[in-house]
Amino acid sequence: TRAKVTQTLEEAKAVEQQVEEYLADAEAAPSDAAPPAVEASGDLTHASYSVDADGVIELTLHGGALEPRTIVLTPMRSEAGIEWDCTGGSVPLQQRPVRCRGQAVPELQE
């Protein structure tokens, strides 16, 4: 349900914070493992997570109809600091908060 997805995204903010702190201190994330200051994987209430070498967080939901759907949180550098794109993954759009739905590309009509 959307409530579980929203709760999972809120809980993931602690992991986002760790990635942001690491990226703020580093020129670039290392290419072979999760950032060293960040736990590479773990569990939240309704999901497990993993962090890759670029600081991308993949949330895999568990329990209920959304198992094993994912939401991918991608850090993007901007003038304001690190912003998070949460439009990736396999959770259906209607189950995501508005900020994580992205822009649908209309299909071309032939």
Describe the model.
The chain has two helices and five strands. The protein is globular. It is an alpha+beta fold and 110 residues long. The protein has a five-stranded antiparallel sheet with strand order 1-2-3-4-5, with helices on one face.
Outline:
By secondary structure, this protein is of the alpha+beta class. Helix content is 21%, strand content 28%.
Oligomerization:
single chain
Query: How far apart lie the N and C ends?
Result: 36 Å
Low-confidence stretches: 104-110
- Going by helix content, strand content and strand pairing, the class is alpha+beta
Order of helices and strands: HHEEEEE
User: What is the count of DSSP helices, taking H or I runs of 4+ residues?
Assistant: 2
Secondary structure tally: strands: 5
How much helix is in the residues?
10-25%
CA gyration radius, whole angstroms: 15 Å
| Major pleated sheet | 5 strands, antiparallel
Strand order of the largest sheet: 1-2-3-4-5
Residues in β-strands, percent: 25-35%
How much is the average pLDDT? 83
Shape annotation: globular
